[in-house]
Design a protein that fits this description.
247 residues; alpha/beta; Rossmann fold; six-stranded mixed beta sheet; three-stranded antiparallel beta sheet; 9 strands; 20% strand; globular; binds guanosine-5'-triphosphate; binds magnesium ion; nucleotide-binding; magnesium; GTP binding; Small_GTPase_ARF/SAR
Length: 247
Amino acid sequence: MHWRYLKSWVELLWYKVASFFLFQKELSIAVIGLQNSGKTTFVRLLSGQPFEGDTVPTLGVQMDQFALGNNSIKVYDLAGQTRFQPLWERCFDKADLIVYMIDLSDVAALEESFAKLIRVIQMTNDDKIPLLIIGNKTDVIPDPPMSREYLTKYLPETLLNDYNYETIEKCKLEKTNLHQLKNVEVLSKQLGLDLRNHVLHIPLQCEDSAWGVPTEPLPLDRDVAIFTVSCKTGGFIQDVIDWIVQI
Ligand SMILES: Nc1nc2c(ncn2[C@@H]2O[C@H](COP(=O)(O)OP(=O)(O)OP(=O)(O)O)[C@@H](O)[C@H]2O)c(=O)[nH]1
Ligand SMILES: [Mg+2]
């Protein structure tokens, strides 16, 4: 046997023994979302590697295992290309947490990304798998000129705690108003996710709802969190990590 293979076997064995004694819990995470949304970049950050501007699109699924705080994390980094999307659901039964990445700066892909997320929520809701929704690439979205209204209304990028879903406006998203999505409350409204009342309002255009007929809100009996982040600048990544390790 080549010494390099022997070395990786020894490392794996050492990791398994160390995890048995050192780690409080083992967490399997499935990271999904459309291509180019930043899934592999996010996994790299989780494992302590720096931001990489030039990444290679993932093919199929890439598995990685590392320590995060006192936890041993096993990550399934899934490919976002359409041809690989059927693989996503094969990882759901192994996952203790599903992370869904959205590229907030890609206005052309937002509708597809939102629709696929809603499908994932419907598919995994009975199993109550915790769900972490990450709006990524906030650094690419230009801010409008600073105003008092902007500062008070659009700045919160942290996890929702107490908010009033009904009073948030839903708008047609365009390049010029994308900055609103940096606010997790606005993002939750666009997705139809009322986290305060734990329900999903399924939009009419989604494939599983009859066209033109409002569907009943879907009760969410699971942990759901939404963050908006920048994997490039590291903005709010630590908040995401803190949330993951507490589940
Ligand atoms: N500006 C900016 N670029 C980012 C950010 N996150 C990721 N990227 C870039 O986006 C591109 C795609 O990132 P990946 O992590 O490979 O995307 P992915 O979701 O894994 O893509 P697939 O594997 O094809 O599904 C890369 O060029 C990254 O450097 C971010 O927060 N800001
Ligand atoms: Mg990838």
